[in-house]
Design a protein that fits this description.
This protein is mostly beta strands. The chain has one helix at about 5-15; strands at about 25, 50, 55, 60, 70-75, 80, 85-90, 95, 100, 110-115, 120, 125, 135, 140-145. The protein has one domain (about 20-145). It is globular.
């Protein structure tokens, strides 16, 4: 193997282990104007989605995979209101924190299903929804709403 190829491999492997967690800001009238527009499938362990004050009407489907050491976090700031449902579909090691969820009507405010595991729902309020929190076939779920 020539020197250039070895150097390229060393650099590539060195950078692969140093990926920085990112923060995605959600706010009305911005590029990511709704939690539903977050590219959930491309989030990496340690990434955080911060929902700024506003009323959001689109349902959210989270299929992200965090780790025990680096969960993926969906954090609502005071005044962030979701008038729909959060669905954790096969999501692992995801924390939903501080979200106000309301008016999902006949649907639960939060649904965990299809293998959702090791997820945490904390410091959230769920009102005017069908079932509040529904855990289908999820496991290892912690709640403190």
């Amino acid at each position: 193997m020539n020197t250039r190829v070895r150097l390229a491999m060393v650099l590539l492997l060195g950078f692969a282990g140093s990926v920085q967690a990112r923060t995605i800001d959600v706010a009305p009238n911005t590029i990511v104007s709704s939690p539903a527009k977050v590219p959930w499938g491309s989030l990496q362990p340690g990434d955080e989605v911060v929902v700024h004050p506003g009323v959001y009407h689109d349902g959210v489907i989270i299929n992200s995979k965090g780790t025990a050491d680096k969960p993926i976090v969906l954090r609502g700031e005071p005044g962030a209101i979701l008038e729909s449902t959060i669905l954790l579909e096969g999501a692992t090691h995801v924390i939903v924190d501080g979200m106000a969820i309301r008016k999902s009507h006949e649907f639960p405010g939060v649904i965990l299903r299809h293998g959702a595991s090791f997820d945490t729902i904390q410091n959230c309020t769920v009102e005017d929804s069908g079932l509040g929190l529904w855990i289908g076939d999820g496991s290892g779920v912690a709640t403190s709403c």
